[in-house]
Hints:
Order of helices and strands: HHHEHEEHEEHEHHEHHEHE
Bound molecules: iron/sulfur cluster
Strand order of the largest sheet: 8-1-9
Largest sheet: 3 strands, mixed
Oligomer: single chain
Number of strands: 9
Mean pLDDT: 81
Low-confidence stretches: 1-44
Number of helices: 11
Amino acid sequence: xxxxxxxxxxxxxxxxxxxxxxxxxxxxxxxxxxxxxxxxxxxxxxxxxxxxxxxxxxxxxxxxxxxxxxxxxxxxxxxxxxxxxxxxxxxxxxxxxxxxxxxxxxxxxxxxxxxxxxxxxxxxxxxxxxxxxxxxxxxxxxxxxxxxxxxxxxxxxxxxxxxxxxxxxxxxxxxxxxxxxxxxxxxxxxxxxxxxxxxxxxxxxxxxxxxxxxxxxxxxxxxxxxxxxxxxxxxxxxxxxxxxxxxxxxxxxxxxxxxxxxxxxxxxxxxxxxxxxxxxxxxxxxxxxxxxxx
Length: 294
Ligand code: SF4
Ligand code: SF4
C-alpha cells in the first residue's frame, strides 16, 4: 500500500504535468496546445442530478439483431481507442449442422451494486457514484490491475501501451489516397484534439484523455445522463433493444420490462448484483424454420 501511495503521488504529479500539446504528440505545436487548453469546458456545465437513482439497462435479446451498432456508437462517443471496446458481446454458434444458429449477447460494465472492482481498488479510483454508476477516476488510478482481476465480467481494459497511437501515425490510412492520423491532428489546428472527449471532462476533470498505465471501462455515458440524455449505445441501437432508466422509479420503462418478462443477469450466482438485465432470447432461435409448402 505504501508503494501504491508513492506511485499514486507520482501519477497525480505526472497528470498535472500532462499538458495537451505533450499528449498530442509531435503533430501539435505549443501554440496550438495553449489554444486547446482554452477550449476545455468548465466542469460545472453538467446539470441533471443522478442522486437517489439506481440506473439500470435492460437488453431485449429478442429485439437485438447482433448488428454491433452499440459497440461502434460507444467507441464513437467515448473515443475508445483501437483494440478496446467498452461495449462488447458474447457470441457463439449453437447446435449442429444443419440445425445451427448464432447467439449474440451484448455486454458492458454491469455497474454492479456490490461491485468487487470498487471493493478491491486500493486508491479509490474505482468508486460508486450518483445513480449507482461504477465510475473510474483516472487521476487516482495507479494501474495495479486489481479491479481487472476482481471483475468477473472482463469489462475493464488497461492502457499498457502509448494511447491513441493512430493520431500520431504518419502513415496514410490508404496509401496515396487518404490522409494520416498525424496530419488530421495537425489540420485540427489546435482547436480540438481528435481523441479528446470534452463531454467527459465536464463531469470529471482529467477524464477527457486517457493515459498509458491506467484502466478504463463503460461509464453508462454519465456525461450524457447529466445532460438528460440516454447512454449513446441506447440512443443508437437501431432495434430499440436497449432500454435505460431508474429502478427506483416505479413506472420507469426498465421496471415495466422487468415486471413483464423474466429477467436474467450475467453470473448472478456471484452476488455482485449487476444492473444490466437481459430479457427474452436472441431472435434466430424463435424465427420461422421453413418458407411454407404448396
Ligand atoms: Fe466492476 Fe466489473 Fe461489476 Fe463493472 S461489471 S461494476 S467493472 S465488477
Ligand atoms: Fe484501482 Fe484498478 Fe486503478 Fe488499481 S488499476 S488503482 S484497482 S482502478
